From TrEMBL:
Its main location: cytoplasm. One of its GO terms (biological process) is L-proline biosynthetic process. NADP(+) binds at residues 6-11. GO terms for molecular function: pyrroline-5-carboxylate reductase activity. Pathway: Amino-acid biosynthesis; L-proline biosynthesis; L-proline from L-glutamate 5-semialdehyde: step 1/1. The keyword Cell cycle does not apply. It comes from Paenibacillus nanensis. Residues 159-262 form the Pyrroline-5-carboxylate reductase dimerisation domain. Pfam families: F420_oxidored (PF03807), P5CR_dimer (PF14748). This is Pyrroline-5-carboxylate reductase. NADPH binds at residue 56. It catalyses: L-proline + NAD(+) = (S)-1-pyrroline-5-carboxylate + NADH + 2 H(+); L-proline + NADP(+) = (S)-1-pyrroline-5-carboxylate + NADPH + 2 H(+). The keyword Oxidoreductase applies.
Length: 279
């Protein structure tokens, strides 16, 4: 299977490295391009057999599946580059939420999917969120999901829930890392414990908690109940957490959704030439 990646920034590179390291793809199956060619070439140099192309169209032309790993506002440019060469049997994939399946279906005469990865896929963990266009047959979906199964848990979702599921799956690692950082920084400040030591303990705690919730089949409520014995230290601290965090995640979700709507308007404007906010 020939797989192309247009955009070898943070996410494009992460996916390429994870697919190759996991054995899902061999370098000879991969072709890449990037706005700054030298960056694509430097990546290809690390993997003998991988092809770095000057033109996005050359990546699209020679690939069965093409991942578009650019930012939302950069999509229209890439779509214009590849539009003349895509063929109906090919699959083109957006990895970003504000680029809708319908945006790409309106422009490209091929199969369209949206798969939102997560930084956790770097360590072959976490989910990949799969949304499919009308031209995708069940066999096409299975092929993509078996590719992503090497580095993640592929989960099919409705496009209407893309934003919230991306919050949980793809933004979530940043949110949890932020909370962990706050926890550790406070530990260092309050007690003088070396940061490295506190971070090692806390990171392992986060990993273990994730395993309890997945492989251990415990619910968050059960984890809390098992740790917070009545009248104990954790129970007291949980009371404080409940009080102090009330409404925080509602506000967070409203923030991500507002930004999403803003990005969606800009992408739609670029694709359909609509005016945005009367400008
Ligand atoms: N960072 C994350 O955890 C996740 C990011 N994403 C999505 O991945 C997308 C890419 O994000 P990053 O990799 O962080 O961005 P980035 O800025 O690191 O990478 C984008 C790459 O695209 C290249 N590029 C831009 N225009 C191009 C063009 N016309 N032709 C060829 N290459 C072009 C740039 O040179 C750059 O290397 C974003 O839309 C983001 O929403 C999705 C899931 C998770
Ligand atoms: O496009 C998105 O929704 C993803 C989630 C994290 C960053 N970008």
């Amino acid at each position: 299977m020939n797989v192309g990646f247009i955009g070898t920034g943070s996410m494009g590179t992460l996916l390429i490295e994870a697919f190759i390291a996991s054995g899902a793809l061999s370098p000879a199956e991969v072709a890449i391009s990037n706005r700054t060619y030298a960056k694509a070439q430097a990546l290809a140099d690390r993997y003998p057999g991988m092809r770095a192309e000057f033109m996005n169209a050359d990546v699209a032309c020679g690939s069965d599946i093409v991942f578009l790993c650019v930012k939302p506002h950069e999509f229209i440019r890439v779509v214009e580059d590849i539009k003349p060469v895509v063929r109906p049997e090919q699959t083109i994939i957006s990895i970003t939420s504000p680029v809708l399946v319908s945006h790409l279906e309106g422009e490209l005469n091929c199969k369209i999917a949206k798969i939102i990865p997560s930084i956790t896929n770097k360590v072959w963990s976490g989910a990949s969120l799969c949304i499919y266009g009308d031209k995708m047959e069940e066999a096409d979906k299975k092929k993509l999901e078996s590719l992503f199964a090497h580095i993640s848990e592929p989960i099919r979702i409705a496009e209407s829930y893309t934003r919230i599921v991306s919050d949980l799956s793809s933004c979530g690692p940043a949110f949890m890392a932020f909370l962990l950082q706050q926890f550790v920084d406070a530990a260092v400040k309050e007690t003088g414990i070396p940061r490295k030591e506190a971070m090692e303990v806390a990171s392992n705690m986060l990993l273990g908690t994730g395993l309890l919730l997945t492989e251990g089949r415990m619910t968050p409520e059960e984890v809390q109940a098992r740790v917070a014995v009545p009248g104990g230290i954790t129970a007291k601290a949980l009371q404080l957490l409940r009080r102090e965090t009330e409404g925080v995640f509602t506000a967070l979700i409203r923030t991500t959704h507002d930004k999403y709507r803003e990005d969606l308007l800009k992408v739609s404007s670029a694709f359909y030439g609509e005016e945005v906010n009367g400008q």
